[in-house]
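Tutorial handout. Part one gives the primary structure; part two gives the three-dimensional structure as tokens.
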Amino acid sequence: MRRVVRQSKFRHVFGQAVKNDQCYDDIRVSRVTWDSSFCAVNPRFVAIIVEASGGGAFLVLPLHKTGRIDKSYPTVCGHTGPVLDIDWCPHNDQVIASGSEDCTVMVWQIPENGLTLSLTEPVVILEGHSKRVGIVAWHPTARNVLLSAGCDNAIIIWNVGTGEALINLDDMHSDMIYNVSWNRNGSLICTASKDKKVRVIDPRKQELVAEKEKAHEGARPMRAIFLADGNVFTTGFSRMSERQLALWNPKNMQEPIALHEMDTSNGVLLPFYDPDTSIIYLCGKGDSSIRYFEITDESPYVHYLNTFSSKEPQRGMGYMPKRGLDVNKCEIARFFKLHERKCEPIIMTVPRKSDLFQDDLYPDTAGPEAALEAEEWFEGKNADPILISLKHGYIPGKNRDLKVVKKNILDSKPTANKKCDLINVPKKTTDTTSVQNEAKLDEILKEIKSIKDTICNQDERISKLEQQMAKIAA
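Part two.
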């Protein structure tokens, strides 16, 4: 006998928007025309890109700060152009990266209890793109490794701890990059581009591992994300402008494992993936619904589960990491839906009668501890995420401050990752450049010494004046 209904514990997942008093109200959500999610969430804070005159800004609110947000509430406002994308560091809940139209990436440290004053000074500014930066994505397992992609069609991977660009993939893409996704252990990235290609890239070897031309035939933007098993999931449009989703095996990209057509709406489908439950949530920009699918090993591989529908269209969407969910209420996902003037949390729940911890819904999940240091990853090591159990709920630990130690110029060697054409360069030119560099260094060191001398003189002068003041006062 063939089973008529597929067995799945997620068949009855239902979504529910929270009550009005648990929303974040009176927020002027950014109107910039860019297809990022405009919202980033972690177990402590929700960050939202907002309208800002004369630059770019985003709000960072502690999760409990619901209700009406005052117009004078402090923002993170160091960019000189609109902010296009934000991403919380997976290993430190107080560190967030932002990419902007001003061609820079900035990394910010948020105070433990949220902002009391507007933040204008980032911990580090990462400069290397020649056009606006529309994508920022932290490495899933290595500490302080950040990827950025810009409209200069370049992908740069930074060591945030030293402020250095260590990998620059500037010849891989011939057209605009729509999105970039790391795989489970951060050894590969996949990208979707305006040239209709989906690429799988090994960033450290700077090699193209796999590529699919015309993954989706339509002209509108695509998205591509890695799944936990190494397959790639894409969303895009058919030639007839129907929205599609597809599943690919990077080892054989000729034909998709599965291809489904959905509807003829024109909003870009943003995929949010939960590796623990193998559920993908699709949120269309401008849609008022969230569709969700389960990915399995049996045909048709992508199984439609249900749709959460509401009245208002969404301007953007934030997705809470698993460790920020309420396990006692069988909550398996929480979204932060951006309206024009507010942010509304939406809770996805599996109905269960028991109040006990449901270990089949909550396998061990990626915790906040980094499995590798940045240097280890750049040297070629890989590691899966360090998993934690959610049985007794997640208690956020103390985050260590992000410290940026700029490398001494004297210690810097040309790294293997940068395509250095040192072999082709005649010896003479390297000698002259090193002589020039030494002369420049001497100049800098002299200037530092003279500034230090000046400071010493000023200190002596100040102490003399203070002594004179003390005498007069006495």
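Part three, for discussion. The first strand starts at residue 14 and ends at 17. Residues 427-473 form the longest helix (47 residues).
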